[in-house]
Backbone:
C-alpha cells in the first residue's frame, strides 16, 4: 500500500520538531548502553528531521490550524479545500462570483457597475454627471435597486433594506501552495497562464484572468498594505505579517437558505465585533482561489443578523471604514452616497466568501 505523504506529514506540527527530539533524547538517552547511544541519537535525529521536512508538504488545513490556533477554519474555506491528493488539479475554466464590490473603491464607477444597482440603465449624460461628481443627479441615487454602500447609522435594528444575495457562489478551489507557485501569476506571463489552463486568448475567461492579475499588480494606496495570496497558506502568512500576532479572530458572512437574488431584509440585531486595524480578503474571479487582501486603515467590524422576506437567515459581516480620504472620488461608494472622500465613514457588507482577519 503506497504511503500518502501528505497524510503522513500532516501529523507533524513544525513547532514539535525540535521539542520532540529534545524530549525523547533527554528521557531515554541514558537508559541505553554506551554502544547503542550513538545509534539511538542518530535515529531520533532522523525522525525529527523527517518531521521538519514534511512540514513543507502539510495540507492547507493543517497549516491553518498550526499558524492560527485560536481561529477555527471557516466553512466557506474548508468546503473548497482539496480532500485528497487526487483533488489537487485545476480545470480549464475561470470561476465567477456574483459580485466584486470590494474592488469598487479603487477605480471610477463604470456603466456596468451602475447598471447593476440601478432600476433603469443610465444614459450617457447621467453617467457623465456621475463621473464629474455633479450634485445635480439626486434622481440617480433615488432610483437604485439597492445600495452596496451605506453609513454606520443605517445599521439599526428594525431597518428594512433591499439587498442581493450574499452568497457570492465563486467555487474556485483552494490549492496547495507548492502547486500554485509552479504556475505563473504575472501580466508579463499572461500567454503562459492562458496556455497552462488551455484558455483561448480572445475569450471572456482570458479577459477576466488579465483583469484579475492587473488588479493584483496595482500599487497600494498610502498607508495601505495589500497582496493577492494564491493559496490559503500565503493568505495566513500575510495576515500574520500584517497584524503582527497569531491572536486573530476570523469572521465570515453566513447564509442559511436564500433563494431570491434580490429581496428585502429586516435587521434583527447588530453586534460590534472589532474596532481597529484588520485585514480583509475579497475573492476574485480566477481559475483557482485567489484573494485580494488589504488593510491598514481603521475600521469597525459588525455582525448584522437579518431575515429575508422569504425566511432566509443571514449573519452578515459589515465593515465600516472610518477614513475614506484616499479613496477614488469617482468610485461607486461616493456615487451611491453623494459624498466626498474623507467627509464620512463608509460601510459595506461582505459576501460569504470574503474573509476578515481581526487581532485581539
Residues:
Amino acid at each position: 500500500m503506497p504511503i500518502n505523504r501528505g497524510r503522513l506529514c500532516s501529523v507533524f506540527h513544525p513547532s514539535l520538531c525540535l521539542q520532540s527530539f529534545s524530549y525523547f533524547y533527554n528521557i531515554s538517552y541514558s537508559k541505553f548502553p554506551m554502544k547503542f547511544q550513538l545509534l539511538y541519537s542518530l535515529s531520533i535525529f532522523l525522525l525529527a528531521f523527517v518531521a521538519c521536512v514534511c512540514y513543507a508538504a502539510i495540507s492547507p488545513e493543517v497549516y491553518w490550524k498550526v499558524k492560527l490556533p485560536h481561529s477555527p477554519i471557516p466553512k466557506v474555506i474548508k468546503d473548497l479545500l482539496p480532500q485528497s491528493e487526487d483533488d489537487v488539479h485545476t480545470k480549464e475554466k475561470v470561476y465567477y462570483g456574483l459580485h466584486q464590490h470590494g474592488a469598487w473603491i479603487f477605480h471610477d464607477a463604470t456603466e456596468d457597475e451602475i447598471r447593476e444597482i440601478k432600476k433603469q440603465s443610465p444614459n450617457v449624460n447621467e453617467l457623465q454627471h456621475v463621473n464629474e461628481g455633479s450634485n445635480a443627479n439626486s434622481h440617480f441615487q433615488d432610483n437604485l435597486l439597492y445600495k452596496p454602500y451605506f453609513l454606520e447609522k443605517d445599521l439599526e435594528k428594525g431597518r428594512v433594506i433591499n439587498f442581493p444575495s450574499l452568497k457570492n457562489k465563486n467555487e474556485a478551489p483552494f490549492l496547495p501552495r507548492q502547486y500554485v507557485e509552479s504556475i505563473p501569476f504575472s501580466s508579463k506571463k499572461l500567454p503562459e497562464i492562458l496556455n497552462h489552463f488551455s484558455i483561448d486568448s480572445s475569450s471572456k475567461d482570458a479577459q477576466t484572468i488579465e483583469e484579475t492579475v492587473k488588479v493584483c499588480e496595482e500599487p497600494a494606496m498610502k498607508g495601505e498594505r495589500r497582496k493577492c495570496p494564491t493559496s490559503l497558506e500565503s493568505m495566513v502568512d500575510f495576515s500574520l505579517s500584517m497584524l503582527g500576532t497569531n491572536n486573530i479572530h476570523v469572521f465570515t458572512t453566513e447564509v442559511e437558505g436564500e433563494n431570491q437574488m434580490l429581496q428585502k431584509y429586516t435587521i434583527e440585531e447588530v453586534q460590534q465585533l472589532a474596532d481597529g486595524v484588520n485585514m480583509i480578503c475579497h475573492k476574485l474571479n480566477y481559475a483557482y482561489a485567489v484573494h485580494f487582501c488589504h488593510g491598514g486603515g481603521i475600521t469597525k467590524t459588525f455582525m448584522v443578523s437579518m431575515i429575508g422576506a422569504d425566511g432566509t437567515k443571514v449573519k452578515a459581516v459589515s465593515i465600516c471604514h472610518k477614513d475614506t480620504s484616499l479613496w477614488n472620488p469617482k468610485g461607486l461608494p461616493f456615487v451611491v452616497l453623494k459624498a466626498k472622500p474623507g467627509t464620512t465613514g463608509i460601510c459595506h457588507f461582505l459576501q460569504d466568501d470574503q474573509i476578515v482577519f481581526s487581532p485581539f
Residues 9 and 85 are 13 Å apart (CA to CA). Strands lie at 160-164, 225-227, 248-251, 254-256, 262-283, 291-308, 313-321, 346-349, 355-359. The radius of gyration is 24 Å. Residues 1-29, 48-56 have pLDDT under 50 and may be disordered.
